[in-house]
Design a protein that fits this description.
Elements: H1 3-24, H2 38-55, E1 59-64, E2 69-74, E3 77-85, E4 91-99, H3 107-118
Antiparallel strand pairs: 1-2, 2-3, 3-4
Helix pairs in contact: 2-3
């Protein structure tokens, strides 16, 4: 008869320990409507930049996702794009074009428009 209370204590302690470990090992869920983290924003912007360049048939010559820079060409036009992390956690994108723009008027604006569409704006 004395074994029953001892076994009950062991089982109770095991159950409590198991629950504590199971609950303690789970991270809390993110709050609803949480804005994307900086890395998420950066990756999304980076993909949208590359997509915008492809939309305008820009041949990408160099890309450095760590630095956030892309360099490409479209005929005689040199195209640059920079994805910049902001101190507030945001991301800023800049497009630059140089060279003979006669064959590709408004290229910078078209790139910005394509980027904005890809970002859902």
């Amino acid at each position: 008869m004395e074994r029953f209370p001892q076994m009950f204590k062991v089982l109770s302690a095991s159950l409590v320990l198991g629950l504590v470990l199971a609950i303690g090992g789970c991270p809390p869920p993110p709050p609803p409507g949480r804005p994307p983290q900086t890395a998420d924003k950066y990756d999304r912007a980076w993909s949208a930049v590359l997509g915008a360049l492809a939309d305008e048939q820009v041949m990408v010559l160099l890309q450095d996702p760590v630095a956030g820079s892309v360099r490409g060409s479209l005929g005689e036009v040199t195209v640059t794009a920079n994805v910049l992390r902001q101190p507030d956690g945001g991301v800023r994108v800049e497009f630059g074009v140089s060279g003979n723009l006669a064959a590709h008027p408004n290229l910078k604006e078209r790139l910005a428009g394509s980027y904005n569409r890809r970002m859902g704006r």
